[in-house]
Design a protein that fits this description.
41% of the residues lie in helices and 16% in strands. With 320 residues, it is an alpha/beta fold. The radius of gyration is 22 Å and the shape is globular.
Length: 320
């Protein structure tokens, strides 16, 4: 049952995009109503809102944010609506002033933690991002790398990852080095293809502007003028992590991402990501971003799945 007797009417100048704003069969409208416990009734280019005063102000922020996105020629998805709802809890106008801009894509924060992450990616040389799947750790790092490359801040992008969690046994996989590593770097590739054309990605790989560098092969290198991303870093050993971090060269940036709750090291080995985030937390020009299940920006069901597994893990730890 909806609560509150306050009311608010929003007027939209361009009513041609209201169907996209409200979603097919008004599903975005219904989602916002449900999450904010309000009533929303469209009437032409007007939207009548009823509910608690604070919820109405949040609704105003959400609808204006989404309308502005449509008005600038961008589409909105369920994830955009979820993000706008999440960001509406912030003080001020609920909008993020931080964006990542590439020739193909403009990305804004969909949660307060993502906003903190974007700020760190912009200002810091070394950024650690830990948290569950679906929080945007890998995607935002890849978009940030492309944006830096297009602006001439770096000369190349280097993607790295523990290729096989239990020991990186690349020699047992068929094909050349790219064939061996590609399946493990697919999330990074997906992000690149989302903000660059397929031709640009392939050309970048051919020319070495985009490099696939398995973690096992990084030893002895100095990565200058490069934007380097180490993904799934929870499966690095402390020695591997130290080796990777000390590859940092002049004019370079590094982003290290992973989920400390998904460590697959054999024998319960210590995670290099967990150790590094603790050891380097007070080092200047670094940042540590901790995402939680509340920051999951994929399908809403993903948040419920993450929460269910967290609860099961907590129950197992408390069992005698």
């Amino acid at each position: 049952m909806k609560t509150g007797n306050d009311s608010l009417t929003l007027r939209f100048e361009d009513n041609h995009i209201l169907s996209a704003l409200f979603g097919g069969h008004d599903r975005y409208l219904a989602l916002i109503e449900d999450r904010l416990d309000i009533e929303a009734t469209p009437r032409g280019n007007l939207l009548a809102l009823k509910g608690e005063k604070q919820a109405l102000q949040r609704a105003k922020t959400i609808f204006n944010t989404l309308h502005d996105r449509l008005d600038t020629g961008h589409e909105i998805t369920l994830s955009d609506v979820e993000g706008a709802i999440r960001m509406s809890t912030r003080s001020g106008n609920g909008k993020s002033s931080l964006t990542l801009v590439t020739r193909k894509r403009t990305v804004t924060a969909r949660s307060p933690a993502q906003e903190e992450y974007l700020r760190a990616l912009k200002d810091k040389t070394l950024v650690f991002a830990g948290g569950p799947a679906g929080t945007g750790k890998t995607y935002l790092a890849a978009v940030s790398a492309v944006a830096a490359l297009e602006r001439g801040l770096v000369d190349r992008i280097i993607l790295s990852r523990p290729a096989v969690e239990a020991g990186e046994r690349l020699g047992f996989l068929p094909g050349d080095m790219r064939d061996k590593v590609d399946p493990y770097l697919r999330p990074l590739y997906d992000a690149l293809y989302d903000c660059m054309s397929a031709a640009q990605v392939e050309r970048g790989i051919e020319t070495g502007q985009i490099e696939i560098a398995p973690l096992a092969f990084m030893r002895g290198r100095t990565l200058a003028h490069a934007y380097t991303i180490l993904d799934e870093a929870q499966n690095c050993t402390p020695m591997q992590m130290k080796m990777f971090l000390t590859r940092l060269g002049e004019g370079s940036r590094m982003v290290v991402t992973g989920d400390p709750s998904q460590i697959d090291l054999p024998g319960g080995g210590k995670s290099g990501l967990v150790e590094a985030m603790a050891l380097l937390r007070d080092i200047e020009d670094t940042a540590r971003i901790n995402f939680t299940k509340a920051d999951v920006v994929r399908h809403p069901l993903v948040s419920a799945i993450v929460e269910a597994y967290d609860e099961a893990d907590a129950a197992r730890k408390t069992d005698p």
